[in-house]
Design goal:
This protein is α/β, with parallel strands linked by helices and 180 residues long. It has four helices and eight strands. A hairpin with a 2-residue loop joins strand 6 and strand 7. The protein is globular and about 45 Å long.
């Protein structure tokens, strides 16, 4: 996960034009929103429902990495099950969550063990779950990385899959070493 966070930092400077590469890059105007019905998005706003976008990215993933402060077992299992059944044995899954209160650690470990069992029962063979237990342990930002062989797709923001809130995310994709 440290590599993923470092890559995200490198990506920020590279996408800002810091790498001198000749390949033209465009920033998508699409935002990814949970519950767009709760906010007034104008007709000129290009948006997509976050659950649909994450599901589409997961469908052909060869690796899924999720780092977040909030989790809900059902939506996480459902998201991972979007991977085609024939590809699950070779799809690597890494999920880490953070906590606000150390009193929640036993329950969270029970949940993470259940999540791992559910994913293994769904046909995945390489599943790692973790709890971030070093200060600061709570973080609100979510990172979703879907690797499609050598092409990564990142979703970064505050939205939680399956949540009833109207938070949002941005998506980064393309061939660039900072996104790998």
């Amino acid at each position: 996960f440290a590599r993923a966070v470092t890559a995200r930092a490198r990506c920020s400077s590279a996408l800002a034009g810091g790498n001198g590469m000749a390949e033209k890059r465009a920033v998508s105007s699409t935002i990814y929103v949970g519950r767009p019905d709760l906010i007034e998005l104008g007709d000129d706003v290009d948006y997509e429902e976050i659950d649909e976008a994450l599901g589409a990215a997961a469908a052909s993933a060869t690796e899924i990495t999720i780092l977040g402060g909030f989790y809900s077992l059902g939506p996480l299992v459902s998201l991972c099950r979007k991977v085609k059944k024939s590809k699950r044995k070779t799809c690597r899954i890494r999920i880490a969550v953070g906590l606000e209160a150390s009193a929640m650690i036993p329950r969270t470990w029970d949940d993470m063990r259940q999540l791992r069992r559910d994913l293994l029962d769904s046909g995945f063979r390489d599943v790692t779950v973790a709890i971030v237990d070093r200060a600061p342990v709570h973080f609100h930002t979510k990172l979703f990385r879907f690797l499609h062989t050598t092409r990564p797709v990142w979703f970064v923001g505050s939205a939680n899959p399956g949540s009833g809130r109207h938070e949002l995310m941005v998506r980064l994709s393309g061939r660039h070493e900072g996104l790998s």
